[in-house]
From TrEMBL:
It holds the Pfam family BPD_transp_1. It comes from Sinorhizobium mexicanum. It is a multi-pass membrane protein. Keywords: Cell membrane, Membrane, Plasmid, Transmembrane, Transmembrane helix, Transport. Belongs to the binding-protein-dependent transport system permease family. CysTW subfamily. The keyword rRNA-binding does not apply. It comes from the Bacteria. Gene3D superfamilies: MetI-like. The keyword Protein biosynthesis does not apply. One of its GO terms (biological process) is transmembrane transport. One of its GO terms (cellular component) is plasma membrane. SUPFAM superfamilies: MetI-like (SSF161098). This is ABC transporter permease.
Amino acid sequence: MRTYFNDLPKTALGASYWLFTVYLVLPLALMMSMSFKDANFIAFPIGNWTLDWYGKVLQDKQFIEASLYSIGIALATTVCATIVGVWIAMLVSAENIWGRAAIFALACLPAVVPGLINAISMRIFIRAVDIPTGTFAIILAHTVHAVPFVVIMVLTRLRSMPANLVDAARDLGADPFVAFLRVTIPYLIPALFGGMIFCVLTSIDDFVRTFFLGGYQPTLPMLIFAKVQGGMSPEINAMATIVLVVTTAVGLYAELFTRRSRS
């Protein structure tokens, strides 16, 4: 009897975990199932199943152009956010820098500011400095939002780095820049890769900042939003399913790569 009561917290925790998993997965499963419905509307029962909606989406010129545009913005955002994030992380980890806590807090501020407030402030900023809405403005806003995540991941990795690695490189004649390239950067690869994947995924998924700062060319979230205004259909579910599968595969690969790099 005592063993039974001792196992109750563990059983309750396990049950709560699976209930939460079902809560997360069930809506996604319903959305994906509706993308196979052989009809122009979304409703149960599904009846006949078809792959025609996926063929239509993959032949949709707007979908392909919006996807390529989103990927291009995501890659540019990732490069910029990684460079800035690594620089800030190195600055915060340095011992002779005054105000490191304030620098870290300011760097992480965009991650805690609501997206709507961030988008409005960025819109005001680009108008003040006379930057037109469009690709550059979107990349700028996405970079500001992505930098905190790179900083946190890189800084966490830096704090676990043995100090004698850089010291050994310096003793062997390497200057600070060479030591950074040949010692620090290779050690940071798992954190950099994880941060870069996170930047790509958050940029592709970002709707609010793109809505306020975008030009005439729509990104993928903007295209899906525009189609939703005309009513839900299995075509939209097919688009969302393709995005979900691709982003999930990229995220799982990043997690696997990070674990292998740390082992």
